[in-house]
Design goal:
single chain, mainly alpha, 2 domains, 6 helices
């Protein structure tokens, strides 16, 4: 079975060689045939394409160094954490709002100096 003309582009986007892409294409065709039970229909070709894209995505993670991929997975989580951390109130903001005991819970009561007056 001939591979689609877009296969080299898909393989290069996933970071795999063209020969590995052709192997994955053959595997996707076999899986789609076993799932759909038919060949040369639009449902078969759609299933083959979806399976190929999933196989290429899995192959992309396989080519990464074992110590590198956890950091790639954490990157999105760290970005979300930093976006949330920007919304946290700063200690000076909480002092002005009268929430000093919440900002510095480890200090005994009455030891926090107000930023405005300089008094205790």
């Amino acid at each position: 079975m001939k591979a689609p003309k877009i296969l080299p582009w898909l393989a290069s986007r996933a970071g795999v060689s063209e020969s590995r892409g052709e192997v994955l294409w053959a595997e996707a065709c076999q899986r789609a045939a076993s799932i759909t039970g038919e060949r040369d229909t639009s449902f078969y070709w759609g299933s083959t394409q979806r399976i190929l894209v999933n196989l290429l995505a899995d192959e992309r993670w396989r080519t990464c160094h074992p110590l590198a991929w956890p950091w790639l997975l954490m990157q999105r989580g760290l970005e979300a954490f930093s976006r949330g951390a920007r919304r946290w109130p700063s200690p000076t903001h909480t002092a002005h709002a009268g929430l000093a005991p919440l900002a510095l819970p480890w200090l005994p009561a009455g030891t926090y100096r107000s930023a405005e007056t300089g008094k205790q």
